[in-house]
């Protein structure tokens, strides 16, 4: 005798399986909504998870780029303000040499001007040896200590490295983080290479103890100082454009960061409206299943037979 | 005239009693695992007339022909086959998920990214001791997370091996029991309740066995079963009253499993043993990948250290020790020993050519990308297998429910049967009453 019917165990098995799968679906949705995240583990969506890892990596490296750009910005701003001070001193030195070039001045008066120039020279040396935000020389390239050393007779010699080194700003962009002493102080005078420190020192010496025509020396010094001032102004322009570049890459980083955040949200986030309505739908079906289960399971022939 | 009304009534009452017993047995076993619904098959008890007595009425009532076990062999073997597939997929997915967790939760990826980041930050000021210390600390975190990942992978592997060992023991216990059931089946009387119980046991054992390994069954005329593992051409696990033990060996080099029955190699095609064996193969692949990342990373950094000077201006030494993810460690704790400057550049050099070279070399090696690829490898395996698992599980569930619908007990049916056989019993009693009344009417003739 073969009878095709649904056995009691089959009914319970099937109902349990159906209700359990609905419950599981509802719980997954609830978890996603609660966490605001579609993925609880990589295997939920391996491609999206891998993309998220890459985006988070870019994010964390971008934050470091941000810190580095901040340092470069601070160093260049320091260099810029140092150059402004340089320019002020040179302007003052130019004024003094203009006075000294005046034929009515006595030798003693010129020597007095020369003495003031010597003070300016000392200030220029300490300015050239000023430090950056990390405590390293601002104009010494990659040298650890001072940029200029001063010998017994007061002559300054550049002891830094030839270049300042680059700093990565992310996306393969780099910036030269500073200016070396020769870049801001060296210039050609009538075809002869010289530097601003030597010019000021020479002028101060000539006016105080020179043997030649001190008025002529002051007049020559004026020309040289004017050229030196040009070099410094040029250096300031360079620094200004670098600061500008840092700002540009910073803007770009911010934009890319926003794009990444949008993509992260798109790849790994959930759409609340869709998820909540889907949860509601699942819950409705689940409630219906549970209600019909309790009705059907109460429907036994044994209850009818007395 | 050989009929006996009282006898006919009695046989009917007995048959109804047996049918009621069987119905009661069905009802009480409605939720017993492996119980197959029984039904009674009755046959008429009558004799044909002998020579010269053709016209005689010779009726003897009813007799129990046999207790029918409503098992469908095809559906049962489907349940075993699909069940073995589902068990294999489930075991594999669980194993792979453990591997995924080991790799992902240990945070190797984030640690590698942090190490890269700390090097990039060091570039902003290579002689800053706090930035150097930060590189050392991120390197330490990286080596530790690799150690943890390797350890967790090992533990996942050991767990799988332990469970597989237990599975083999279960298979052998079940096989021995099956052999005993075979022996008793060969001796049991046909269609007896003893035989039906043994058949239930046999099928239940086979179903349990199919959770651990694939089973190919051949059922002979005396209802004993021959079981093969590893497909139809595999090795014989149980034949008649003999069970050949299944043995398992764990490879000491890569931790993978191999099985033998009676000394002959066999590969289970289904069941949890097959799933665990597959998961262990994947585990070996992932561990090799992680070891490779750890080794190449250590080699690259150490090679860069060899071409540079430390902060004190001395030739730098190797930064990492060890060649595997489990053994990788830091060779020094002092941040000043990181070689950012090229050789012979003197103490406190801000020259970061060597650091830049290291960053380029690491960029080419791309350990973070490789780690990501490794996590992707295992997580996509988990995802793919999960889809397969879900499909196989729903197939297995359907097969089980189909079998249960056909072979299981329906309480409504049994309720109806209860009423039916009760009525049959009462009717038979009535026959006996009639027989007595008839007899009394003859006795009362005066």
Describe what this molecule looks like in 3D.
The complex is a heterodimer of chains A (306) and B (446). Chain A has 306 residues and is mainly alpha-helical. Chain A has a domain at 67-243: f41 fragment of flagellin, N-terminal domain, CATH 1.20.1330.10. Helices cover 68% and strands 8% of the residues of chain A. In chain A, the strands form 3 sheets. In chain A, strands 1-2 form a two-stranded antiparallel ribbon. A two-stranded antiparallel ribbon of chain A has the order 3-4. In chain A, strands 5-6 form a two-stranded antiparallel sheet. In chain A, α2 runs antiparallel to α6 (214-268) and α5 (196-209) runs antiparallel to α6. The mean pLDDT of chain A is 87. Chain B is α+β, with helices and mostly antiparallel strands and 446 residues long. Chain B has helices at residues 5-28, 73-105, 108-122, 129-187, 193-210, 271-306, 353-365, 367-407, 411-443, and strands spanning 38-46, 59-69, 216-219, 225-229, 235-239, 242-243, 246-250, 257-261, 264-266, 308-309, 320-321, 329-330, 341-342. In chain B, the strands form 5 sheets. A 4-stranded antiparallel sheet of chain B has the order 3-4-5-6, covered by helices on one side. A 3-stranded antiparallel sheet of chain B has the order 7-8-9. Chain B has a two-stranded antiparallel ribbon with strand order 1-2. In chain B, α2 (73-105) packs parallel to α6 (271-306) and α3 (108-122) packs antiparallel against α4 (129-187). The mean pLDDT of chain B is 90. Classes of the chains: A mainly alpha (306), B alpha+beta (446). At the A-B interface, α1 and α2 of A face α2, α3, α8 and α9 of B.
